[in-house]
Amino acid sequence: MVRPPAARSVVPSAGRLGLVESSAPADLQTLGWVDTDSIELLWSLSRAPDADLALKTLVKLQENLGADWSELEALLRTDKSLRGRLFGLIGASIAFGDHILLDPGCWKLLHNTSLPTPEAMRDAMLDAVGATPETGPNASPGLYRAAVTGPTVVPVLRKRYRDQLMLLAAADVAAVVENEPVVPYATVGRHLSDLADAALTAALSVAVATVCPDEPCPSRLAVIAMGKCGARELNYVSDVDVIFVAEPADTPASRIASEMMRIGNAAFFEVDAALRPEGKQGALVRSLDSHIAYYKRWAKTWEFQALLKARPMAGDMELGKQYQDALLPMVWTASEREDFVPETQAMRRRVEDNVPEDLRERELKLGRGSLRDVEFAVQLLQLVHGRTDDALHVTSTVDALTALATRGYIGRDDSANLTASYEFLRLLEHRLQLQKLKRTHTLPPPEDEEALRWLARAAHLRPDGRNDSLGVLNAEIKRNAHRIRRLHAKLFYRPLLDSITKLDKEALRLSPDAAIRQLAALGYLAPENALGHLKALAAGPERKGRIQALLLPTLLEYLGDTPDPDAGLLAYRRVSEALNDQVWFLRELRDEGAIAQRLMIVLGSSAYVPDLLMKAPEAIRLFADGPNGPLLIGPNPADVARGIVSSSARYDDPKRAIAAARALRRHELARIASADILGMLDVRQVCRALSSVWAAVLNSSLQSVIKASEAERGAPAPATFAVIGMGRLGGWELGYGSDADVLFVCDPKEGEDEAQAVKWANSIAEKVTKLLGAPSTDPPLQVDAGLRPEGRNGPLVRTLAAYDAYYRQWAQAWEVQALLRAHQMAGDEELGIRFLHVIDKIRYPEGGISPTAVREIRRMKARVDAERLPRGADPATHTKLGRGGLADIEWTVQLIQLQHAREVPSLHNTSTLETLTAIEAAELLSAADVSLLRDAWLTATKARNALVLVRGKPTDQIPGPGRLLTAVAHVAGAEYRDGGEFLDHYLRVTRRAKAVVERVFGGE
């Protein structure tokens, strides 16, 4: 509310004062503030964060004070400082308004214009319970003994604590109402921490008197502050994290600590000892030696990070100092631990995952661009560089930012900007907590404009000429959150680039050792190599080197969140060098944020994709967003297949035709794999797309070879020729590492000699197989005809009549089973369909298969399990042949097809997943059993594909715990937070599926 010109003496209306309650005029009349003598009071009242709340509280206070109201009113008319403190307090806090109304005389405490010292607060708290220092020859130093115990203690301590807290709150909000000095954020945090120290000192004195009423406390006991209290940057309403150390750590010491916590929880705030060794399962009190032993042997990285904030706060301060001196040196070597980076990253992810998605934009503490982002980054830099630089051994976030800038680890402007953003968010947090003295870190929802306007006024945000206070608040929240979101690029990576470039002559540069330490802490296992890659990227031609230097901080931040930033950075260097003459590449990265982020995620996750991208660089353009979503999702697989076939058909030379098909395949593999890694395609879509590409390449190759043969012969082909897909190709369920299992079939044309036609067809099949299988740096194009009649000892190509005769007379159980996945794939479509009609009566036998054939299939499966599992492989985690793996599911589905497909036409399907759906619809298995089999097939296929994407080569064995498993989990799905969770899920799903397999396939 803007004050009117001084010459104006008209009493303002309630509306002009910002009073919207209908009772406001009557309330002003009750106070007697309706004449020109009250104008100053009224304009001050209008500037309270909630003028209506302040007015109602004043009316109640007048009533409660009775005759003493005149003393307060007279002071309010003359003392602007008191007016600012009182009006600001009762307009900002319902809780403190109620506190004053319960004890109307406590307003007199606000007449003091200076904040009490830590010693004064401690004395005030101890005085509330008549506490005096422990005395006697065996008295423990630093402990006090209260004169008051029992049920009356908590109300007395609560009242005294609220009185002391009120003094700070009133001074903190006074500037909102009157032109009082603004209390700096750092002062507020220190004062609240000092008050917490004083409060727990008093609670400890009561605990000592309660547990040891007739004799001195037998133990030296120190209370160590942790977290925000330890850093002396406490909130108005916050947990106070503590750790207890005692000599000896005996039962009385534990009882005193427990009693202190009980009193503190009831009177002041939640006292939390969960940061102690072993957490809530560990002993509440330990000796100093026990603490040291634990941190040397068992402590995790996050526990050392927590120790950054440790300081003695109550009890035996000398023992607390010994604790600090013994443990803090361990903090500064934590970054050398082998698991430092993964533990740190996992902890950050857990914090983010705990925030519901719909609250992440409103969470001041844990959301995007939040307080925790700043604190986490600052602590990480302290741990990295504090090992060699004692100047970073500070506890508060603001002090640490200053120290990091002073010592050249971050830019001074970055430090100042982040400090300002951090303090702004903490100010909002403090104001939200003051309102009801409740622990909260969440902004009001956007639709609650009145609550947001109150917050804006409480935070002293005024209209700026373009926006009202609400608009200013929203703009400031967005601006500061956006600035914090860039903190990783600014804090971690900009100094690295400044150290190897000359873009800014004034920039402070990290030493080579500091740069290597920082890269190691960011997850690089070979930081020296990473630094070399950065130098090489930034040292290119002047314009490109400059663009790289500007891009790299953001790119490195994206890489830092991938499983293998070392490989990702190397891959980015290789891609950059391969595209050195492509002017569009860096421009796209600079101008399209989605391309840069997605490309780094892919490069840092996969050894399979980088080579493809270097040979098919245009695929990188697909990382952008189109009008209908990400371009990587791509067109319909059938359209892609037609494009491959038509493109290769332009060439007469089979080698050139196949080269064209290979090039388009390479582009498609890069697209499919990238979309898969980024979670844009599901398992079914990936398998369908890969199978379609394979079919198109087969078609292209076959057509080009036949075309060349006809040109060489000077006559049409003597036979029609078809390729039948088998196995996963026939089921349209190929993975990245799958071969193409096929059968070749021909049919001599009328008037042609059958022997010559078959000889020609064999030459075609051999040439196609040879051309596709030629050595190449692309993922292999291996054509496998091993499922043909008589296996590898049989002829490569047979006529349709020969296949018919063989299958009717000689087909073995495994051959019949293999035919279940036969599907026309390439070549003459009419011949392929005729082949399928021929084999239908074999693979879908009348009346199902005999019990003898079932036993043979089961024996064959047992032999496969015993003989084909690679030596040393873990059967629990082998995706193909392991327990509940792909072979188990597929053999079970195929046995059901052989038994029931003649009566259930919907089982005439080559796809495992689609057949499972048909099995459920026909009620051949329960919905629960089908669900377990389906989940296992999808999980194993996803894992198998992820293994190829991560390692760059086919493999079926899921690795044990470690970096590789973490990478596989990352690629296998965003739902897995780490490798252990992924592995547990895999084992659980496949174990349940194996039980179904044993019951259904095994006949148990």
TrEMBL record:
EC number: 2.7.7.89, 2.7.7.42
Gene Ontology biological process terms, A to Z: regulation of glutamine family amino acid metabolic process
Gene Ontology terms: cellular component: cytosol
Name of the top EC class for this enzyme: transferase
Ranges where the PII-uridylyltransferase/Glutamine-synthetase adenylyltransferase domain occurs: 346-492, 859-1000
Residue segments, region Adenylyl transferase: 504-1004
Cofactor(s) this protein requires: Mg(2+)
Catalytic activity: [glutamine synthetase]-L-tyrosine + ATP = [glutamine synthetase]-O(4)-(5'-adenylyl)-L-tyrosine + diphosphate; [glutamine synthetase]-O(4)-(5'-adenylyl)-L-tyrosine + phosphate = [glutamine synthetase]-L-tyrosine + ADP
GO function term, MF aspect, one: ATP binding
Domain (Glutamate-ammonia ligase adenylyltransferase repeated): residue spans on this chain: 156-323, 597-837
UniProt keyword terms in alphabetical order: ATP-binding, Magnesium, Multifunctional enzyme, Nucleotide-binding, Nucleotidyltransferase, Transferase
Superkingdom to which the source organism belongs: Bacteria
Residue ranges of the region described as Adenylyl removase: 1-496
Matching InterPro entries: GlnE, GlnE_rpt_dom, NT_sf, PII_UdlTrfase/GS_AdlTrfase
Family: Belongs to the GlnE family.
HAMAP family, per database record: GlnE
Protein task: Involved in the regulation of glutamine synthetase GlnA, a key enzyme in the process to assimilate ammonia. When cellular nitrogen levels are high, the C-terminal adenylyl transferase (AT) inactivates GlnA by covalent transfer of an adenylyl group from ATP to specific tyrosine residue of GlnA, thus reducing its activity. Conversely, when nitrogen levels are low, the N-terminal adenylyl removase (AR) activates GlnA by removing the adenylyl group by phosphorolysis, increasing its activity.
Name of the protein this chain belongs to: Bifunctional glutamine synthetase adenylyltransferase/adenylyl-removing enzyme
